[in-house]
Amino acid sequence: MPDSLLAPERLWTRAEVLDHPTPAPAAPGVYAWYFTAPPPRVPVDRCNTAHGAVLLYVGISPKRPPANGGRPSRQSLRTRLRYHYRGNAYGSTLRLTLGVLLADELGIGLRRVGSTGSRLTFSDGEAVLSEWMAEHARVCWVQDPQPWLLETRLIEGIDLPLNLDQNTHGGFHARLSAARARQRELARSMPALPR
After folding, report:
1. What is the maximum span of the chain, computed from C-alpha positions, in angstroms?
2. How high is the pLDDT of residue 74?
């Protein structure tokens, strides 16, 4: 396991990642999300810690190339980290998970948005979630030309309660999946909001 993720020299804030120039490289790699205040009810007793924060989630950019020979993603650490910090729940599973876990605390809820109502986001609550992430979410990364291989090793080797993919062995998987399903069901029962 790379020390740059499990014992990082530093963790980067939202302001630093979104700054120009950004420290996040336009390269493939694995990123690790640490939190100074974990969302409620997330089990953290077996999680890795660094700089007073707890590691709860890892991700990659780009994703594994399609097996059917389709066009690979052109995402990089830079584009993905910026999206997690300022995007929405439709395009970020991390934001979706955080918003679901923090819905009551932040007063936000998942909603259908747009003319077709097929996208689920926290609508105006995305800005509230971004503020929470600015205060509590920190990130570090390591460049890797095949990040999906390292991601699998990390998920298999350490406790990452906010990761769902490849993590059915995690003790929080069932509760997190159920919470996300409840939020989706509730959102689909309400009228769609304009974009």
Report:
1. 47
2. 86
